[in-house]
Amino acid sequence: MTHAIDIRSMSRVFGRSTALEDITLTVPEGSICGLLGRNGAGKTTLMSILAGQDRPSSGTVEVFGQNPFENEAALSRISFVRDNQRYPDGYRLHHVLRIAPEFAPNWNADVAAELVEGFRIPGKTPISKMSRGQLSSVAIVLALASRAPLTLLDEPYLGLDVTARGLFHNMLLRDYTEHPRTVVLSTHLIEESEALFDRVLIVDRGRVRADCGSEETSSLAFTVSGPTEAVERFSEGRTLLASHTVGSLKSATVRGTADADVRAQAQTLGASVSPATLQELVAGFGSDAAAPEPVRIRKGARA
Ligand SMILES: Nc1ncnc2c1ncn2[C@@H]1O[C@H](COP(=O)(O)OP(=O)(O)OP(=O)(O)O)[C@@H](O)[C@H]1O
Hints:
It is a single chain. By secondary structure, this protein is of the alpha/beta class. The protein folds into two domains: 3-216, Rossmann fold (3-Layer(aba) Sandwich), CATH 3.40.50; 221-275, Alpha-Beta Plaits, CATH 3.30.70. The protein contains ten helices and 14 strands. It has helices at 43-50, 72-75, 93-103, 109-119, 132-146, 162-178, 190-193, 228-235, 260-269, 278-285, and strands at 3-14, 17-28, 32-36, 58-63, 78-81, 150-154, 182-186, 199-204, 207-213, 221-227, 240-246, 249-255, 272-275, 295-296. The strands form three sheets. The protein has a seven-stranded mixed β-sheet, with helices on both faces. It has a four-stranded antiparallel β-sheet with strand order 11-12-10-13, sandwiched between helices. A hairpin with a 2-residue loop joins strand 8 (199-204) and strand 9. The protein binds adenosine-5'-triphosphate. Residues 14, 17, 19, 37, 39-45 line the site of adenosine-5'-triphosphate.
């Protein structure tokens, strides 16, 4: 399998703060990977390094087999759109659309025009005066119309209304299907975006906590709920990622697979088991109770 991203033993330290610690991971070509984790988990730092805007303190990073840092050939294959994207003073939309193809060899003006119309991005307003959602819209136009082999989207949803979010999802999936590429998308809107992902990377405090295909997340953890005593008895000897108690009822996210034995045991105790949602997994792997060892499940990428 060809890897778009290959990271080995990579760390990024800022003074006394370790933003990324001993990261080893690969992302196969032709996948949409959700990069998920709590605030400060290390998502933006990871994307900046992949985009050649920062370099690791140790370890190696390869994008399509090359180190992206100060590497023009590698950077021409990467589109990185971040939430605080800056534009030159006085720039309006038409300036951006005119200059973008110079940096994006696969630029598609039809995709850009369709998105500009759908997002209702004003042509006359200077970019510096645009609303938060309009800025996100411009960033998404750049990201999708670039059709870069590696597209990095860091929190693309900030300020976007529900219609604009739907347009983004539809265009991403449509254009990705017609022109396959590798996309890494970080977001805190997990429920809304999870249908996009065929891979999921969960990071917390600079470390990879889970790395698997999206259809395999159900084997990482499950939720058990019921009377507090039943859930506590069921949880004995198991690894809890998180738990919540409301009145006499308790719900816990438990590491492992909910096989027939697990379900039967819960039922005997008067508790019930259901698959953990992706949101519960991210919250669980970001909790202080989560064990530090990463869970990796490697299978093929989407065809
Ligand atoms: N230039 C820097 N100097 C010092 N510390 C930094 C720097 N950049 C990032 N960090 C620290 O590295 C850690 C990871 O930050 P990062 O921005 O990558 O997190 P994130 O997962 O993108 O968070 P969020 O979801 O809040 O955007 C944080 O603790 C942050 O304070």
